[in-house]
């Protein structure tokens, strides 16, 4: 593969990881203002809506990156795979669920709950994914990783035509059908339910996972690439406008176009992946080794930054003012996102100086 550098890093994958983790921070920072007010005509709401909308590619791209990287590896031993790939995720889930649960109960809610009561509450939250908002990603990726020893064999046994067929079915069921169902619900207040579409293999984040593998391993025509580029660019502009009208119609923030399976999010995600994949050689030739090392370092820390960034946001960021003007809202957003990202990255690097801390908090990942 031409994407692989001398140090085994893949530059376009590293860049996508960095862009995606920054986008996740933007999503969580802007969500505060978007959910605090239903006045959709303020400048601050529009700025938050715009940045939130154009950051929606992040989660699908994370799944696509995971699929493109892990499905190319041959799984020779179930035990070795689970110890190396799944166990670190479980350790991270346990550690950060506990950290966020403790902080929420005793520092935010200032609860006087007993240790026993807390442990029961924590266990319940751990089982049902109720300990903190962003940890859902770990549940989803763990579930997919558990299937990787089988899925990797499946995709390698499939021809390119087979994979295209799978992705088409997944797209029609998980993206198109869901979009139609959401539109019908907003018009009639009733979801359409077609039993024949209830096919688990063609539903959920597994589709993005396999899509990443497909795009990494198979070339698509220039014409199709241009279609996805253009749809992605159009979606960056459609999402905030469509969200405004949907929210104005319902009277509260409507996240139909924010969803990870919305048509616009799908187009943004696939457009981003294809664009940076196509530019990998150019990027690699134009940036020097030191910059590549910085990119590699930040990329490696992206998973850990994901885990810690909301705690940092709670501690250091300031809420955006609802009545702020264009300049104030934009500068506040940029400043707070930069601070959250920087502190998260530095904290991760400091914590990683101790291998035992790294093991407990991040499952051994740097």
Describe the structure.
This protein has 366 residues and is mainly α. It has one domain. The protein contains 15 helices and no strands. Helix 1 (11-36) runs parallel beside helix 13 and helix 1 crosses helix 14. It is globular. The model is unreliable at 1-6 (pLDDT under 50). InterPro entries: Acyl_transf_3_dom. The chain crosses the membrane at residues 12-31, 43-65, 86-108, 132-151, 163-180, 192-215, 227-246, 258-276, 297-317, 329-348. Belongs to the acyltransferase 3 family. Keywords: Acyltransferase, Cell membrane, Membrane, Transferase, Transmembrane, Transmembrane helix.
What's the SSE blueprint?
Elements: H1 11-36, H2 43-54, H3 58-70, H4 78-108, H5 115-128, H6 136-157, H7 160-188, H8 206-217, H9 222-250, H10 263-278, H11 280-286, H12 289-300, H13 302-316, H14 326-351, H15 355-362
Helix pairs in contact: 1-2, 1-3, 1-10, 1-12, 1-13, 1-14, 2-9, 2-14, 3-8, 3-10, 4-5, 4-6, 4-15, 7-8, 9-10, 13-14
């Amino acid at each position: 593969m031409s994407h692989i550098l001398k140090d085994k890093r893949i530059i376009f994958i590293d860049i996508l990881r960095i862009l995606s983790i920054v986008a996740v921070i933007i999503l969580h920072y802007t969500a505060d203002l978007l959910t605090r007010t239903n006045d959709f005509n303020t400048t601050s709401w529009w700025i938050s809506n715009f940045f939130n909308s154009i950051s929606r590619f992040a989660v699908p791209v994370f799944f696509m990156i995971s699929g493109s990287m892990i499905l190319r590896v041959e799984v020779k031993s179930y035990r070795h795979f689970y110890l190396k790939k799944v166990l670190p995720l479980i350790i991270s889930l346990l550690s950060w669920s506990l950290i966020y649960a403790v902080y929420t109960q005793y520092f935010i809610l200032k609860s006087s709950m007993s240790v026993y009561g807390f442990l029961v509450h924590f266990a319940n939250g751990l089982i049902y994914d109720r300990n903190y908002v962003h940890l859902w990603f770990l549940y989803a990726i763990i579930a997919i990783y558990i299937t990787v020893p089988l899925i990797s064999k499946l995709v390698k046994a499939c021809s390119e035509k087979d994979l295209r067929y799978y992705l088409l079915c997944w797209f029609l069921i998980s993206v198109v059908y869901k979009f139609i169902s959401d539109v019908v619900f907003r018009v009639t207040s009733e979801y359409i339910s077609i039993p024949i579409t209830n096919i688990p293999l063609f539903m959920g984040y597994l589709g993005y996972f396999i899509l990443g593998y497909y795009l990494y391993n198979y070339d698509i025509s220039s014409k199709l690439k241009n279609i996805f580029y253009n749809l992605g660019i159009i979606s960056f502009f459609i999402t905030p406008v469509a969200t405004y009208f949907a929210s104005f119609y319902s009277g509260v923030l409507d996240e139909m176009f924010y969803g990870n399976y919305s048509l616009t999010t799908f187009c943004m995600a696939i457009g981003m992946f294809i664009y940076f994949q196509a530019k990998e050689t150019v990027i690699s030739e134009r940036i020097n080794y030191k910059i590549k090392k910085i990119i590699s370092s930040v990329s490696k820390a992206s998973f850990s930054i994901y885990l810690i960034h909301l705690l940092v946001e709670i501690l250091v960021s300031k809420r955006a003012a609802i009545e702020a003007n264009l300049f104030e809202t934009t500068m506040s957003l940029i400043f707070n996102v930069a601070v959250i990202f920087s502190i998260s990255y530095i904290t991760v690097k400091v914590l990683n100086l101790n291998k035992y801390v790294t093991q407990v908090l991040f499952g051994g990942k740097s």
